[in-house]
Amino acid sequence: MTWIKTIPPAEADERLRGLLQAQQGLYPAEYGTPVAGADDLSGRELPGIVASHTLIPDALYHAFSTFGSLMDPGLPLTRRQHEMITTTVSVLNRCMY
Known about the structure:
By secondary structure, the chain is an all-alpha fold. Helices cover 44% and strands 0% of the residues. Helix 1 (14-24) runs parallel beside helix 3 (57-70).
C-alpha cells in the first residue's frame, strides 16, 4: 500500500481546519450526521481520499467543495435523481462504492 504523509485533524492548523469545515458546510444536511470512518474534525482519522489532500489545503477545499456545489438543493435535480445517476455510473464503471 502506498503511504502519503497526511495531517490528522488533531494536528491541523487553523487554516486547514477552517477549509475542512468550509467544504463540509457545502454538503447536503444529511452528511452532517457522523458515521464511523467519515470526515470528523474531533480528532479521528479522515478518510484516505480527504486525508491525502491535507498537505495542500487549497486543493482539498476546491476538490471537495465541488461535490457540495453539485449537490446544492437549489439545482434542478433532486437528491434521489443524484443518487440514481451516481449509482448507474458506479455500476457502469464497475466501481465498488
